[in-house]
Amino acid sequence: MSGFNGTIFAYGQTSSGKTHTMYGSGSELGIIKLAVKNMFDMVNSDTNREYLLRVSFLEIYNEVLRDLLEPTKSNLKIHENSKHEIFVGDLSEHIVFNAAQVEEVLQKGDRNRHIAGTNMNERSSRSHTIFRIVIESREKAFTGAVKVSCLNLVDLAGSERVGQTGAEGQRLKEGAHINKSLLALGTVIGRLSEDGGDRGHVPYRDSKLTRILQPSLGGNAKTLIICTITPSPDYADETLSTLKFASRAKTIRNTPEVNE
């Protein structure tokens, strides 16, 4: 709300609670709804500035970008402007004035996302989703610069092993794309966490996910990663892998700046 970009995403194996953490349930608010509530509380209590909030909602399904608010818009392209800002072309944005309108947008998008059952999860996310809120604000006296920042709220699909999920056909293809993009994310995090300034090439372009999140992973954003694990001893290898990811991610230092 003060002009910094922000990103929150949940990372972990399938069925470990990522979607519940981000979206919550009927009785328990998730990160996204808590963030939205907090935002509008601040908007309504700030007597010095006026705000404009816009939201968009997309999914990355089998490495194809799709607008969840206008599902006919598929195979969207990723672009970079002269300021090296990454954006998705032709993605629809909706102006929102209160938390209830955001809830309507979330429900509409959620109805359009890819979800299916596997042996491990009856409502398994088959795509990564990014709910993006752009916040513009200026002083009511029209003095000073306009601040423009964005908050990315990301629900990653979970890594999965065929032997555990029983995936076949289309589910198997989805799982392969999910695992490939998560591997790319792990590689980027690993490269960014290396000591010293000479990291060499960081392969952001290896997946749509890492390309879109490039500013969040290694640049101008305050980023929070929630790593989820399951207590089951059957998945100890996946738990260890998630904890190693978390250990590497903790060492990354971004350089967020106020966007004016």
From TrEMBL:
One term of GO molecular function: microtubule motor activity
Alphabetically ordered keywords of this record: ATP-binding, Coiled coil, Motor protein, Nucleotide-binding
Pfam families assigned to the protein according to its UniProt record, in alphabetical order: Kinesin
A GO biological process held by the record: microtubule-based movement
Superkingdom classification of source: Eukaryota
InterPro entries named among the record's database cross-references: Kinesin-like_fam, Kinesin_motor_dom, Kinesin_motor_dom_sf, P-loop_NTPase
Record Gene3D superfamilies: Kinesin motor domain
The Kinesin motor domain, residue ranges: 1-252
Binding residues annotated for ATP, in chain numbering: G12, Q13, T14, S15, S16, G17, K18, T19
Family as reported in the entry's similarity comment: Belongs to the TRAFAC class myosin-kinesin ATPase superfamily. Kinesin family.
The name this protein goes by in its record: Kinesin-domain-containing protein
